[in-house]
Amino acid sequence: MTIPVVALHGWGLNRRVFDAFAPRLEREVITLDLPGHGLAIEPAAMQQAGWDIEAIATLLLDRMPPRAIVLGWSLGGTLALQLAADRKSTRLNSSHAN
For residue range 57-75, what is the model confidence (pLDDT) as tens digits? Predict the structure, then answer.
């Protein structure tokens, strides 16, 4: 089974920024809208988290598959690095695109 890629977009963008790129990876690509972007639904927990990077990373982790490669662009890269830094996310591989 191929490990999926979770792609996290940059500031002011949304998950659609990866539409042309995702098919080139030849694997499942999961794109998420970050809080306050695109069609993101911000649950009460997100509102309580504010813009605390650790809290946002934890909420994203809850929306990801059990194993994933995380690809982040700009703000998404910052979140990908936070996920990699958290010991609770040892199931992830991270990449930051600039």
Answer: 877 888 888 888 899 999 8
d(CA 50, CA 4): 28
State which residues of the chain have pLDDT below 50.
none
pTM for this structure?
0.78
What percent helix, strand, coil does the chain show, rounded to 5? Answer: 40, 20, 40
Residue 47 near residue 25 (C-beta atoms within 8 A): no
Q: Tell me how far apart the alpha carbons of residues 34 and 77 are, in angstroms, rounded to a whole number.
A: 12
